[in-house]
Amino acid sequence: GREAACGCHHRVRKNPPKSRLTCFTNRALGTIHFMAIGTLDPAVIVKGASASPGVGKGKVVIIKNPSENSPLKQGEVLVTEMTTPDFVPAMKRAAAIVTDKGGRTCHAAIVSRELGVPCIVGTGNATHVLKTGQNVTVDATHGYVFDGDVDVKVEFQATESKYKKTNTHKYCRS
To answer: Could you tell me if 94 and 76 are in contact, meaning their C-beta atoms sit under 8 angstroms apart?
Structure first.
């Protein structure tokens, strides 16, 4: 680890420890700060693959079948086994999307990136662990779902490209 400008001692960890403030450093992403609000233990309750980066907070709504789309209100977290095109109206209203199955090229991943909605796929157990009405914070940048309201701040550091700038021009033919 090393001492950083924020005064924290940074180390790379797979799971955030149980503390008031935890910092992670990753050369590609910069420094990521997790700070609990209302709790001293930001518990990771579900893990999966990041499909569309971002952070979403809200109440969980578990939808087993697309005909149940109507109960999801604007700003709630959609949790389902897997999405299909019939889920798109609900996906547009969701603060975040979490699925049990799928990978980075599944329907939920592609549509969530197009909509700009944070999404975690391939959790394997989200529909069993999460409960309808439960407040969660979805950190889709890293694939974590936290219990309750957790303040997740991501600081990005700009880096210069290691590649030389070329004089190549792009042309399109019609």
So the answer is: yes
